[in-house]
Design a protein that fits this description.
Length: 152
Amino acid sequence: MIPFFETRKTYTPTMFSHIGLTCKDPVVIERFYSKYFGFKRARVIPLGDDQILFIKSGHFYMELFKAKEQSPLAEPKDDGYPWAGLRHLAFEVESVDAKLAEMGADAKIMLGPADFSDFIPGWKGAWIADPEGNIVELNQGYVDQVMPPQLP
């Protein structure tokens, strides 16, 4: 007997779920994040001639939608748009330089690499654009502050 409902996960109310990206070509974006950041296809939701793609890496999901309109904004520069909203996605890597070398011409560097060792020894970052211009931060060596100031 096939169950009517799929098995459901147990959810923690404060668990991060996913980020949704609207893409000119979701499959191109899926290939980029799969090739360089280990994402795997988790689900495809068919919508007539269209589809929504879910890709995941560990417990982190991205939901990829097909764009219906052209963006009225210029592509972001440096580490992302300076106004309120999503600035960039970020991935921790073992070595920023090694990841950039691995990516070769696919690493469209927007800013950096930059050394932040004045703040955290060994902390380094670079910002690249994915195939559609979304800004992606690569960082190595970041660690949490031992006793961060409390929320006022």
